[in-house]
Amino acid sequence: MSITLPSETVFHSIEKAIKEYRKFSQKNISNQIEDLTIDQGMVLLFLDKHSELTQKEIAALVFKDNASMTRMINLMVNKKYLKRSMNTIDRRRFTIELTAKGKEVLETLPPIILSNREKSLEGISKEEMIQLETILKKIAANCEKSE
């Protein structure tokens, strides 16, 4: 039985594109915000727009498991980007809030992200973007319905 090498599949190309984009983006973020990762930046952005999100909901949005998310939030609390307190309604949960330092980072981060996106999508038409997004959604849907 013959199988195509992983490096010869579309999935390898997708993974490579993601890894290159993350490496490129992290370098540009680190040039201006020295102790922030891409994932930590995403957490700040989601909390800024949706302050009511639970830790579990944030984890799903940034594609992390609960244990990884707990470690990341602990780190962000230690770095003073986030404040965590007991939820007054449900004592089994925590409330996660942006601190002044977290809000300050959100003034610097969006222009970096917009520049990263613009540079990485250079030469790609709107039609190509729509087609790519359609294809990726189909792949994800195929995998989800097979679970």
Mean pLDDT: 93
Terminus-to-terminus distance: 25 Å
**CATH homologous superfamily identity:** Winged helix-like DNA-binding domain superfamily/Winged helix DNA-binding domain
- CATH architecture, by name, is Orthogonal Bundle
Q: H/E series, N to C?
A: HHHHEEHH
Gyration radius over CA: 18 Å
Helix content: 55-70%
Count of DSSP strands: 2
Largest sheet: 2 strands, antiparallel
Annotated CATH topology: Arc Repressor Mutant, subunit A
Arrangement of strands in the largest sheet: 1-2
* Percent range for β-strand residues: 5-15%
Describe this structure in words.
A two-stranded antiparallel ribbon has the order 1-2. It starts with 9 loop residues before the first helix and ends with a helix. Helix 3 packs across helix 4 (66-78). The protein has a single domain, classed as Winged helix-like DNA-binding domain superfamily/Winged helix DNA-binding domain (Arc Repressor Mutant, subunit A, Orthogonal Bundle), CATH 1.10.10.10. It has 6 helices and 2 strands. The model has no long low-confidence stretch (mean pLDDT 93). It is mainly alpha-helical and 147 residues long. Strand 1 and strand 2 (94-98) form a beta hairpin. It is globular, with a radius of gyration of 18 Å.
